[in-house]
Amino acid sequence: MISQVVSVLVNLLVSIDVAADSEIDPDFAVSLQGQAASVFDAMTNDERREVARLVRDMTRLELNSERKSALGEFIDAYGLEDDD
Predict the structure, then answer these.
(1) Whole-structure pTM over 0.90, yes or no?
(2) What is the pLDDT of residues 27-77, one digit of tens each?
(3) How many domains does the chain have?
(4) Packing angle between helix 2-18 and helix 26-42, nearest 10 degrees?
(5) Structure letter (DSSP) for residue 78
(6) 10 Å Cβ neighbour count for 43?
(7) Fewer CB within 10 A of the end CB, N or C, for the chain?
(8) Apex CA 48: angle with CA 47 and CA 50, to 5°?
């Protein structure tokens, strides 16, 4: 169930990322992205790694090239993996 919720959140954030400014207010988009980043920051390292694994799976299965690209940048953009 949790993976489904995370998947929905990731899909929402990717949709916001690929949306044109005419489709979503940029200030509102940045606010939502910031709130999501705070949630990811509050996760344990293990939880972030699990989200990163899920994002990799989603990227592999994504057919839309624009969304696939956004998903490919998601892990770094939200700091889901250690830089070690």
Answers:
(1) no
(2) 999 999 999 999 999 999 999 999 999 999 999 999 999 999 999 999 999
(3) 1
(4) 150
(5) T
(6) 13
(7) C
(8) 65
